[in-house]
Each structure stands twice: as C-alpha cells, then as structure tokens.
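S1.2 Input.
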Amino acid sequence: MMSNVDDSLLEEMIAHFHYPADSIGEHAAKLSLFCRYFIDVNLSLSAYQMNRYRVFIGRLDAEKRTSAVMQNIRRKDLHSQLQEHPFFSTMSLLPDASEQYAESQRSELLYILLAHLCSARGFNDYAACLQFYNAFLKVDSSECCRVDELKARGITAQFALDSTLSELRRDLRQVALKNDNKTLDKVARYFQPPQQRRIDLAALRKNSIIDTTNKHTFAEVRMDEADIALMQTTNQAGEEVGRFTQVTPHLERTQSQRKRSYQTQQSAISNALRKHELALPFSFSSATVGELRTALEYISQSFICGELEDVNLREASILLRLMLKMLTLSDVDTFYLQNVSAGSSSKKHADTREMKVLRYDLDGARKHVFAQLILPAKLIDTSPPADDYLYEESCKNLKVKLPNPLGSLLNIVLRNKSNSPERNDAELSNVLFVDEKGYRRFINHVLNETGLKKRGITRRALETAFFQFAREQAPETFLNFLKSQSTVQSHYINVTNKELETTLLSAWDNFVDNVGIRIDSKDTHENKSSSRLSDFADNERQGSVRSIKDDALTLLYEQLINTLSQQIDDRAIIEAFNNVALYCYMRIATRVALRPVSKPFPAHRHFDKNSGLLSVRDKRAHHKDERRLIVLTNALCQLLCSTSTLCDALSARFAIQRPPALVMFLSVDETDTCRWEHLSRTRVDAQIKTLIDDEVSSQAFRHVAANAFLNASINDFSQTSMNGFMNHSRSGTGLLSNYSLFDIRLIAAQQRERMQRDGEQITANDACVLDLINRLGSAL
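S1.3 Output.
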C-alpha cells in the first residue's frame, strides 16, 4: 500500500486505471513512466486532469524507491485478473522500467504504444489489451512483432510520441501488410476510439414488412441447371408495380461441403436419438401432468371437474382435437367419421379407405355415444413365410375402444344440431367447431396466458405428454400402433388385439387419473355391450407375421426328441449329437433372443456357469469388440454345460481338436474327416429340414423369446428392461453403454425375475434331452 499518497488520490487512480488496490506499489516505476507518456500522447486531457497525473507521478517516484518489484510474471499467473483488470495484467507483463532501462528504446516504445492504445480505448478494454499482448508481448509466438522490426520501418519512440492516433494506426497497418503479420494488423484496428452503433430509423422503416413491396411468384419453371421464376411486385394497395425474372442456379456442392453437411446431419440425428432414448422425466420436449392440467383448467374448468354439461361446443372441439392428438399424435383432420347406424353403404365405404376411422354408435335413450378407433396395423412391410400356417397371423387394422373422456367430448360435438347432416360418412373435421388453424392459435394463447410458454412448454409438448408418461408403462410397440409408426421391436412382437387394447386403455386411464380429470361413469369403454360396434374376434392378432405358433414349436421339439432317441438306439452318434446341439440352440434362442448370426455361441472363456452369464458377439454396432450380455436360467446353464461337455467328449473320441466355441455342429466330409461347424443360420435351417418337411427359419426363435419376455413382464413392464433383453439401443444409450451406471449382477437378477417360467412340457423335454445326452456320452 502507498503510505505517501493521500487516500482520495489513491482511490481516484485505482478507479481510473481499474487497478487492484494492493498492486499500485508493485508497479510504481512502470506506472510513473506510463503516466508521463500518457500525458504527452493524449491531447484530450484537461488542465485539471494533467495536474492530477503530475501529482500522482510525484507520489509514484517517491514510492518506487522503497517498493519491491515482482519479477518473471507470466500471463498464466494472472488468469484470475485478465478480464477483470486488463490494464493491470498488461502492465504486469511489460518489461521492467527501472533506472537502467528507463532510456531503453525497446521498453520505451512499448510504453508509448500502450499509452496511445489506452487513450483511444480506455483502461478496461479486455479485447484491446489481449491483442496488444499477442502483438508485442507474446515473445514465444512467431506472430509477435519485435520492436526492432518497427524501428526498421520507421516507427521509433520519438515518432510514436509525435504522431497522432490515426497516423500511428496507419503506419502500424502498413508494417503489418509488408511483414504479412496478421496479429499486428488486428491490434492496429484498436488504435482508434470504439465506434458507436447508430440505428437508422429511416432505414428500418424503409426495410420493414409494411413498407416493403410485396413479391410474388407469378410463374416458375424448373430445369436441370437452374430454377427460373417470373416474379411480380405489388404495392400496399395490391396494384402491380413491375415484373422481373429470378434465376436460381443449381450449384454442385464440393466433396468437403457434402461431407460437412453429412456430418452435421449425423450429429443432429445422433443427439436427437440420444435425447429420445434418455427419456428424461422432466424435459422441454414433453409437458408433465401438472403442466397439462394447468392448460386444461384454463381451457375448461368444467371439463376437469367432470361437469361436461357445462362444456360448450367450441371448448369440446378444442379439447377433442387436443386429446385425440395426445392419443395418436396424428393429424385429426385425417380421421374418417363413420356412423354404424347410418347403413351398410357407409361402413363399406370406410373399410375400403386407407385412413384412420372413428366409428361410433349413438345411444338415443341415454344420450350417449359408443365409439372406437380403427387404425392401420400393418406397420412393417414383411413378406409372409412360405408355410404361413405355422406362424401367427396379423390383421391389417387395429380396433381400439375410444377411451375416456374422448367419448364424452365426441358426444357433445356429434349431438350439436348443426352437425346432424355432417356426422355420417364424413371427415371428422366437418363436425368440429374449430379448425386446425384456430386450434393452434388458441393453444398458443393458452400457453401465453398460463405462463407455460415462459417455461419452454410448446403446443407439441402438450400433445406428446401421454407418450412421455406411458413410455415405461406400456411396450413401445403397443404405443406405436396408436402413432402408426414402426419400431425395431415391431419385427418381433405379435399379440392378440384384446391384450393390446387392454394394455393401451390401462395406460391411458392411469394418465388421465394422474392429470386429475374426473370421468363420467357411462363413458365410452364401459357398458359397451349394448352398442352395435363390431368387436374383434378372440383370435385376431397384431404384429409380426414371422412369429412361430406355440403349437408348431411344441411339434418341432417333439419331433426332434423322437428322432434323437431313435438315432441313439441306432448308434448314429454324429447325427444324434447334431440334434442335441440343435436342441440346445433352440432352447437358448427361444429364451434369451439370440440373433441368428454366423457364430451364435462364444468361446469357453466368455461363459461363467457360476453366475449364469454369457457374452456373445451379437451385433457390432459401435466397435469391433462390442459384446452382448446374455442372462441364462439355471435350466439353460445345465443344458449348455452338458452339451459343451459332450462336445469335448466327441473331440477325444474322434481325436480332433476341441471346438473353439461352446456348442458346435460336427460334420464329416467326403474323406471321412470330422470338423466343427458354427451354428450359423444356414446350417441350423438345414438341420431343422432333416426333422420336418415344413420350412421353419431360425429367425423365428428370436421372435418367440421376445413375445415370451413381453407376456411374462406385462403386469410390471419396463421398456428399458425389454431393450436390454433384446439388446436394442440407439446412439450408444443401451442398458450397458459407456454411460450406464447399472450393476451387471443387478441386471441379471432383474432379468431372470422377468423371464417367463418354463412350462411343464419344456421341463419334461429338458429332462428327457439331458437323459439322452448321458446315454450318448456312455456310448462314446
């Protein structure tokens, strides 16, 4: 602290230089020299200011005799001061200004340049000080300008003192141009006062939308090389001002531009999928039930309370659009309205349309309506197998009862007298009081008035609230039937229409209950038996057409065991062993959803029989060494160990090398040489062909496992567990990704708990095959 300087002058100069209070004494010599040059170059100082500077210089000269000077200061040592005290940081990095260096031309020129810079930009301009450091003080940089270089170009200390600010800036830029020094050119731009941005109100009015001439496309022609358009301009009154031709050439992008565009799209898709898979419970992409309730209360308090007789036609139309969008995420105007009481011609006309149908039956006695949604169910284009009678069927349409409270809202809309002629065999938009544009305008008004827009909630966030709420309660494949969108698991799942409807309605009822909407006891999917709506048959199913039937799988197991027993009796050892390997593969594939890859079983080191865990090279989605974790039950572990032991016994029996994988087929070539073969898809299909004449693909086994896991865990469903079981993930966000915090033992325990228990027939088959394995081992 400067003991010889009075407090008022000290406080004044600390504020003036934006200096730390305790650092004035350390820089007394440097500040004294700087202030002398600053008085000389700054022509705008008043007499009072110059007098205060001279008094301060006198005090500094007295202080510098007793103050210690810090040596060897580096920029990284000033990290905390760089932006808060930029002038102090720059002074700290300047060469020492002690008596032996005071007359040095090298140091003197730097002080003069800094004085010019501060006279133009002040003492708190971080950008200016940063460029000054890069140009003159960053000695380890090739772009740093040496004082000798400036002197060689005529910029000496005396020249800098005598020059004006504009003259010095011009000469510095000339030196930068001749030496090709971009850093010096950047700092030269700061040797002038900062320019104030001016707003030209006349120019704003001239370029405003109101005063700008309207431009319209009058005619347009598209060619290979360019798009040619004839443009018409009109004034505010709509009168034509003129016409001109606009040519937009089709420029071929370079390889680097195409690569950059691809990388941008790839990154955007990856981020979007990652956010989708993370499924955050609170995010701006979907509204919470509380935020949705706030919006619904603003629209109609009567609707929330269940007092539907007080809901008018306009409110009912808006709410029906909103909730139908929440249920299906579809454009409401695409729904076709069909009255089953209007006659058979209307029903036939609707069935032939490839569109979504809202079918209803008016109950005149109770003044109620029964309704159901008919949605397209063929989400994936898969050709049916040759022997399709062995596989499950799939209907083209899905029938779902219209859940509450949509039925009551539809009842209000349909019973409006003005809608009587429009409600039969027409589009739903014809009977709604509010169109899509009016609906969007009203919802945006609701978001503004309730303050939800300030919290980042959009109209789309309200419409996706149900799917965000139900994504861990109902299978993704079930929810995608409502959206008419396919997913990767749509290739595997096949369920009855009744199971599908029950699960979806349960998830929706839970959602409505959490929002707090009171439901009328006579709503749509209650007391439906009195309506004339056609229900689905008990055997109607939806989903994959490549899911093998349970009866067909049972028949295949039975044929395999009978053939195996006969081969052991005939001492056909190799043929019997291959059927043992086939049974082991089928049992594991139909329980843990093995993919039909070229090498389904791993080496012995990837199997831990004590923990019941198996790691396989399932699908190299991210890197070449990626593996999938397989959780086995006790029965599968016992079967796999017995089959693997039998493989080793055969190796010793035929004096061949031990198989590299746990389970493999044994084949004999024309020279009677035995060799091991992996259970590839082609090899497995060929082995099945030796048992039955029908064509059964090994792909169907993974479908069986997916449906079994889903049915076993449907009452306590978790989409995350389903994805982990099937080894499905997007953007590296799988159950055991690099970002996962799950414990493998916990995952294994939870997955075993969710897996379907073996039935009596499967248990009996396993016991029979294990006995046959022992017989085959004894025969070796």
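S1.4 Remarks. The longest strand covers residues 240-249.
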